[in-house]
Structure formats: structure tokens, C-alpha cells
């Protein structure tokens, strides 16, 4: 069963799971565990998860309130975890608006969120130990209709690099 080829589907699955909880959520971290291993270790999950899936996302405890980069830098996964995914809500601005933002990180988030061209989004980035990455971005609808979903592995290079660092031995 190819695992790397399934990462995009698993990333979409994580985004769908988080999206079911609505907007305005804290960042959520998931371990990506081989399904066969998970079923061996927790046989009570038989019938609750797809036994044919290569990997199963397993929600982790809430991340600390500290800086996300600091929190990720402190994570070390056990060998059984082949990858991880992080879902977080972000504020996006068009490139021309970003040029006017201050360098001060403390005020940056508040200014970006109140910018007239700001768009709220949820980003899910995933990484495997072999270096495979995937990203899904859900842009929050501005008209109450359907959210736009974009998928591309290079949406969040800094975040996927930080996730890969958590998987290094």
C-alpha cells in the first residue's frame, strides 16, 4: 500500500474533520499512524476506522498557547508515527497589502486581521518522514456560500519544514 501517494487524501480528510467543527478553532495536531499498527495496538478501533487505509490521522492533545514554532520545535514523535498534520486558521492578505505591514510581530496579526482585504482561511499541512508533503487551504466564504478549497504541496513551505523537523530522528 503506497503511503506517500495517500498523503493528499489524508490531508483532505484532516481538513474535512476539522471543518466539521466550524470556524474559530485553535490549531490542531494529528499523528499519522499506519492503520495496521493502530489496529494491532488498539483492537477496539476495528469497525471504527478504514482497515484498508495506509495511514490514519490521530488527533493529539491541544498544543500549548506558546508560539506555534516553539511548540512544534519541542515535539518528537515515536517511531510508529510516520507523519503528522497541523490544522490552523490563518489570515491571508494579497501580496500588495503585505508590503505595507510592519515588521513588529506583536501587532502584525491584529493589523492583518483588520485589513479590508483580509481573508480568513484554514490551512492543513502534512508531512511524512520520507519528506513527502501536502497542503490544503480552505478560504472562508465571504458571502455565506461555499468555501473555496485549494490544494498544493507548496502552500506553506515554512510550516511543512517545521513539521518535517518534528519527524527527524
Automatic annotation (TrEMBL):
InterPro entries: PPA1309-like. It comes from the Bacteria. This is Uncharacterized protein. It comes from Actinokineospora alba.
Amino acid at each position: 500500500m503506497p503511503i506517500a501517494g495517500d498523503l493528499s487524501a489524508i490531508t483532505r480528510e484532516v481538513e474535512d474533520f476539522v471543518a466539521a467543527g466550524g470556524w474559530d478553532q485553535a490549531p490542531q495536531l494529528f499523528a499519522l499512524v499506519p492503520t495496521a499498527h493502530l489496529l494491532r495496538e488498539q483492537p477496539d478501533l476495528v469497525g471504527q476506522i478504514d482497515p484498508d487505509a495506509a495511514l490514519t490521522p490521530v488527533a493529539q492533545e491541544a498544543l500549548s498557547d506558546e508560539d506555534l514554532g516553539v511548540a512544534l520545535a519541542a515535539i518528537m514523535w515515536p517511531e510508529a508515527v510516520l507523519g503528522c498534520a497541523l490544522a490552523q486558521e490563518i489570515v491571508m492578505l494579497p501580496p500588495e497589502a503585505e508590503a505595507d505591514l510592519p515588521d513588529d510581530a506583536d501587532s502584525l496579526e491584529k493589523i492583518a486581521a483588520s485589513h479590508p482585504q483580509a481573508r480568513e482561511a484554514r490551512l492543513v499541512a502534512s508531512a511524512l518522514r520520507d519528506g513527502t508533503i501536502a497542503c490544503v487551504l480552505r478560504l472562508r466564504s465571504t458571502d455565506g456560500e461555499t468555501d473555496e478549497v485549494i490544494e498544493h504541496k507548496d502552500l506553506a513551505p515554512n510550516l511543512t519544514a517545521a513539521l518535517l523537523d518534528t519527524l527527524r530522528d
